[in-house]
Model the fold of this input.
Amino acid sequence: RKEVEQDPGPFNVPEGATVAFNCTYSNSASQSFFWYRQDCRKEPKLLMSVYSSGNEDGRFTAQLNRASQYISLLIRDSKLSDSATYLCVVNMHSGGGADGLTFGKGTHLIIQP
Amino acid sequence: EAGVTQFPSHSVIEKGQTVTLRCDPISGHDNLYWYRRVMGKEIKFLLHFVKESKQDESGMPNNRFLAERTGGTYSTLKVQPAELEDSGVYFCASSLIAGGRYNEQFFGPGTRLTVL
Done:
């Protein structure tokens, strides 16, 4: 079983629509959760951290369900510029100060005009 | 402020040759990470430096890979000898602190390595 699983898509969504992604993680000891965005042939960039209580940043809302070990990202009023790959990322912060991130393969989103 | 930089952006080498990748973290960032994405797979953690010390190298695939960070500034990742399966994109990231929750890691543009 993969440590972080995502639906690879692609999700083809009309401009202005709402789209939601989920991901699941296998290690219940994971402590920090993130959504990163990656454009084609570019580096990953942090979109938002995911807090236990859920959090919102403009058109983006992230939720964490620790009991079910899944993380979600909701994008409202989608824009053409939202087209990208969205990476679900966890950090287990395992002992000894280990701080490497664990990535999902990403969900590819295409916003259509 | 300059971001994380990596050199070269692309490298094409033959199997058996040696390649050295370089990463310059954001100034003042003590934490430096190496990651790799091979085709069709997710980005995988390789190792983590705190200043010049290796904090975690659990992701290093084998002893053909050697990472250094002398002086605690830039880092190099050497692959010797390179094999076909080493092809992929090698990302470097840096962060100001480590171990705390929601500490952002900033990624460089990556080095695309092709081994023929």
Q: What stands out?
A: Chain A has a mean pLDDT of 91.
